[in-house]
Amino acid sequence: MKLKDKVVIVTGAARGIGKATAIKFAQEGAKVVVANIRLESMDEVVAEIKEIGGEVLAYDVNVVNRDQIQVMVDDIISKWGRIDVLVNNAGITADNQLLKMPEEDFDKVIAVNLKGVYNCTQIVSAVMAEKGRGVILNASSVVGVYGNFGQTNYAATKFGVIGMTKTWAKELGRKGIRVNAVAPGFILTPMTEKMPEKVLELMKDKSPIRLLGMPEDIANAYAFLASDEAKFITGTVLSVDGGVVL
């Protein structure tokens, strides 16, 4: 168990990559905090963590709301005494071409995917700095490296997350905090599973190994970067994409 007794927060933990990450961390011995909008959305992940004997706390948190984040952090400290890892996984999409994108769709994606990462990291890293250790892991995307048609807002946030990751690695390293990002490729999540089979096949064809990723593939990357096995890795962006951007 490479994360035994570590206290880990996973935002956007109700389903997909967030859910898989929370379960993976529990399997590795971590005490897991799952955060998402609406407590009932996390019933399934909480039940699965408890089934494997894991310790879990759930919080109704919108990462846009700093007060909700602070209440969660204060409660975690009162119960478990520290926070070792933050996985900034929460994110949304509202895709459209530039000339058709409503301003409110641009703003809401920026608010969650970029400002939300800033909010969580600023509040949690202050706690980590007091302890002199911690790991911040941010969800970027291959879209945040190469851009993507119809995703001006989403690509902007994922490019931004990479910039924040590298900046924070420089700023927080002296506080004992490592900061890294993961850039997933095409991942088979509840959202992508609804796509037509033809589209999924096209996505597969873009990978040299002709596979779509699974949420567990990203969870495994997060678990590695959170562990002491990655103690000399900071400021990096790990692409987990099946070679789709080669």
UniProtKB/TrEMBL annotation:
Active site: residue positions: 154 (proton acceptor)
EC number: 1.1.1.100
Pathway: Lipid metabolism; fatty acid biosynthesis
InterPro entries with a match to the protein in the record: 3oxo_ACP_reduc, KR_dom, NAD(P)-bd_dom_sf, Sc_DH/Rdtase_CS, SDR, SDR_fam
Protein's GO biological process: fatty acid biosynthetic process; steroid metabolic process
The organism's place on the tree of life at top rank: Bacteria
Keyword annotations from UniProtKB, A to Z: Fatty acid biosynthesis, Fatty acid metabolism, Lipid biosynthesis, Lipid metabolism, NADP, Oxidoreductase, Steroid metabolism
Pfam families per the UniProt record, alphabetical: adh_short_C2
Residues binding NADP(+): 12-15, 62-63, 89, 154-158, 187
Residues covered by the Ketoreductase domain: 6-185
Catalytic reactions of this protein: a (3R)-hydroxyacyl-[ACP] + NADP(+) = a 3-oxoacyl-[ACP] + NADPH + H(+)
Top EC class of this enzyme: oxidoreductase
Family stated for the protein in its record: Belongs to the short-chain dehydrogenases/reductases (SDR) family.
Function text: Catalyzes the NADPH-dependent reduction of beta-ketoacyl-ACP substrates to beta-hydroxyacyl-ACP products, the first reductive step in the elongation cycle of fatty acid biosynthesis.
Subunit structure: Homotetramer.
Protein name as annotated: 3-oxoacyl-[acyl-carrier-protein] reductase
Lineage of the organism: Bacteria, Bacillati, Bacillota, Clostridia, Peptostreptococcales
